[in-house]
Amino acid sequence: MKKTSLLLCFLCTQLFFSQIGINTTVPNQSAMLDIVSNNKGVLVPRIALSSRTDAATIPSPATGLIIYNTTTAGIGGDQITPGLTINTGTPANPIWASLQVITNTQGHTTDKLRYLGLPDITKTTSVGGFLEFRVRQSGISYNFEMRLLNPPTSNIIYRYARIGYGIVPTTGEKINNGYASNFTFTPTNYNVWQVVDAPFLTTGTLGFHGVLSSPNRDAMHELILNFTYGEFVNCVINTY
Predict the structure, then answer these.
(1) Nearest to 231, CA basis, from 137, 116, 87
(2) Per CATH, the architecture of 109-239 is what?
(3) How far apart are CA 151 and CA 97, in angstroms?
(4) Neighbours of 172 (CB within 10 A)
(5) Domain coordinates of the chain in residue numbers?
(6) What is the SS3 assignment for 78-89?
(7) Residues with Cβ < 8 Å from 93, sequence gap 6 or more?
(8) How many angstroms separate the CA atoms of 199 and 219, rounded?
(9) Contacts of 62 by beta carbon, 8 Å cutoff, 6+ apart
(10) Residues in contact with 188: Cβ distance below 8 Å, sequence separation at least 6, in sequence order
(11) Radius of gyration (C-alpha) of the chain in whole angstroms
């Protein structure tokens, strides 16, 4: 009797700690749950969120929680649309992000580069796992530079257009002089930093606004840079 009880306990323990397989007797070892089907899918909970930062509909949602949002709600940047949605924030401060792009007008990411002090070439920000940006001091100018993170299979051309440019530190007068640049990344020079814009500044606060795009890639990048000489660098890169 004791041997039988011990055997049952052993088997139950093994089952408890093993993977779960549905329609399979050999679930994948990397998965806690492996579902196999040729004509059926998985239906996740369908919930109507009120915004991208909704913290009330699902109390304390875990980071990484996935649902299907059923409604369009919220205003401006806080708007959320129907589709598979994941909480990329925290349980106390959720940020619901779409896991899919339904139309050509959807799909937007924001990356930031912010730190105190003078420009530091060791501080960078990557965008989409493809581009890397930094701010570098060059004499009396500040270069806003970029490079690729991985070698492309063919040449990639980028074109940049500045559409706004800071103020005169001493008078407060707005400066609105345009600027454009073109540069090419190849499979051999992909990791060489290239200058996107080079604003002139010796004191005070400066900011500029520009657009970066490529005929070889479908993403467009909005670049917004603002910094105070010797105090901080603050840059936002919106990708559409």
Answers:
(1) 116
(2) Sandwich (2.60)
(3) 29
(4) 8
(5) 22-106, 109-239
(6) HCECCEEEEECC
(7) 53, 55
(8) 24
(9) 87, 91
(10) 151
(11) 25
Residue the block writes with tokens 């890639």: 217
Q: Cβ-count burial of 33 within 10 angstroms (0-12 exposed, 13-18 middle, 19+ buried)? A: exposed
HSE-up of residue 218 (Cα within 13 Å, Cβ side):
5
DSSP H or E run through 76: none
Q: What are the phi and psi torsion angles at 53 (to 5°)? A: -115, 25
Q: Give Cβ neighbours of residue 145 (< 8 Å, ≥ 6 apart).
A: 133, 134, 135, 136, 193, 194, 195, 196
Token output for 181: 């640049």
Backbone φ/ψ region at 188: left (φ over 0), alpha (ψ -120 to 50), beta: alpha
pLDDT digit string (tens) for the chain, length 240 residues:
555 555 455 445 444 556 788 998 888 888 888 899 999 998 999 999 998 889 999 999 999 999 999 998 876 557 788 889 999 888 998 888 888 655 555 567 788 888 888 888 899 998 877 899 998 887 767 788 999 988 888 899 999 998 766 655 555 555 566 778 899 999 999 999 999 987 655 566 777 788 999 988 878 888 888 877 678 888 888 888
